[in-house]
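Example record

Each entry pairs one chain with its bound ligand, zinc ion.
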Amino acid sequence: ACCSYRLRDALHPLWQSPLTIPGGTRQSPINIQWRDSVYDPFLKPLKISYDPTTCLHIWNNGYSFLVEFDDSADRSIIVGGPLENQYRLKQFHFHWGAVNDWGSEHTVDCKFYPAELHLVHWNAVEYPSFEEAVMEGNGLAVIGVFLKLGARHEGLQTLVDALPAVRHKDTVIEFDVFDPSCLLPSCPDYWTYAGSLTTPPLTESVTWIIKKKPIEVDEDQLEAFRTLLFSSHGEEERRMVDNFRPLQPLMDRTVRSSFR
Ligand SMILES: CC[C@H](CNC(=O)c1ccc(S(N)(=O)=O)cc1)c1ccc2[nH]ccc2c1
Ligand SMILES: [Zn+2]
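Structure tokens for the complex follow.
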């Protein structure tokens, strides 16, 4: 593996809390060793249909900035891929570094990307609420998309322009039309594995779907993420950077790929 989990985890500033939940056997994030992933011909294509008018607001929750969606009906959903049911979009958010050398949560062959997008969905077929789904092994499905440094991303720019309004923890602004599918790479290829939330309570309820191809964003857009703060108004300013969890042991898991 590409690093010693225990030391990195224990020393990581964001994670003074227990590094992995005691007895955790399916923690996230992980390193995806491309050559160890297993092609599964039974994996279906992932079907994504988002309704841009379900977008509600952007807010800074002190871990990241989240764009939240109205999940009171099946209007923005994903189905297929490794999923048994359809899952409703609840929110998306990002993780990023202080510099471009790291920032993603997952790595591919031990390589970090400068940032990673998470589109969080929950199994509204089997569970009555997101809060309950978070506690169930098949409760959540998160699509992970790597961000790499390159051309400016026009779709992301509308988000970046709103960030100054949510600079401090617990600030929120209305954001009423956004189509998150503009943040997905066109390539359908993905890896999938059984994992967890990467922030407390770290519950082992996530089917991870990690897109093989990254999207491109430019330096100014990454820098805009780094102007956000972990701290609230009036507190001493603490820049929101390095909000990614250290890599967790793969343990008895196989990463499957949808592609040869
Ligand atoms: C149970 C946790 C949840 C808040 N956290 C999340 O929703 C969340 C979602 C995705 C990821 S990641 N990085 O893995 O994609 C990490 C955390 C949550 C949701 C509703 C709640 N109501 C009261 C408390 C409470 C906590
Ligand atoms: Zn996340």
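The longest strand covers residues 87-96.
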